[in-house]
Description:
- The chain is an alpha+beta fold and 212 residues long.
- It has helices at 6-25, 88-98, 109-117, 159-165, 187-211; strands at residues 35-44, 47-53, 67-71, 102-106, 123-127, 143-149, 172-175, 179-184.
- Strands 3-2-1-4-8-7-6-5 form an 8-stranded mixed sheet, with helices on both faces.
Amino acid sequence: MSDILLEDKQRVYRELDLVKTDFAARGWFPGTSGNLSMRVGGFEPDRFAFAVTASGKDKAASTPEDFLLVDQTGAPVEATRLKPSAETLIHCEIYRQTGCGAIFHIHSVFNSIVSELFWERRAVPVEGVELIKAFNIWDEEAVIDVPIVSNFADIPRIVPEVKERLDERIPGILLRKHGIYAWGRDAFEARKHLEAFEFLFEYVYRMQLLKK
């Protein structure tokens, strides 16, 4: 896309590399899983571009081939041998619906467990926990439900459900037994939201154990 400046692309790649290194150190990318993306350039719901992690890369290492640029359909916008993450279409839909600036997807034990624990409910309930304020929800004793969607091997089958279940108050969505997608205006906010979700999921799981 002609409106993407080289320096903007380089800045986004640097930011993504810092986030990737941080999350890898936390063990959030087991077995090359997970993916990160950030928008580059202007945004219209039917025309935008973003940098995304390349498929199958060791996210504990930093190489010149860690990221590539794709358009609103998930297709590379530059000549490359790299393949975008298999779940790029989910990123496309979240950008299209929210206009956010960054999306981070990781796999952790707690987010995988609670996605199955509350699958029949199709949402993880969180009640009155301080970290809900990370989502700019300031109600005293606030109650939120983090949506859970189906996890299919055929990624295009997931996209309509993501579109249907997105909650404008909640900057995240869980795939069943898979992981969390969290987003924000920029890398800082997306990371803040992701960290809050991970705290809340562990809290909910441990509370369930105490109730037994």
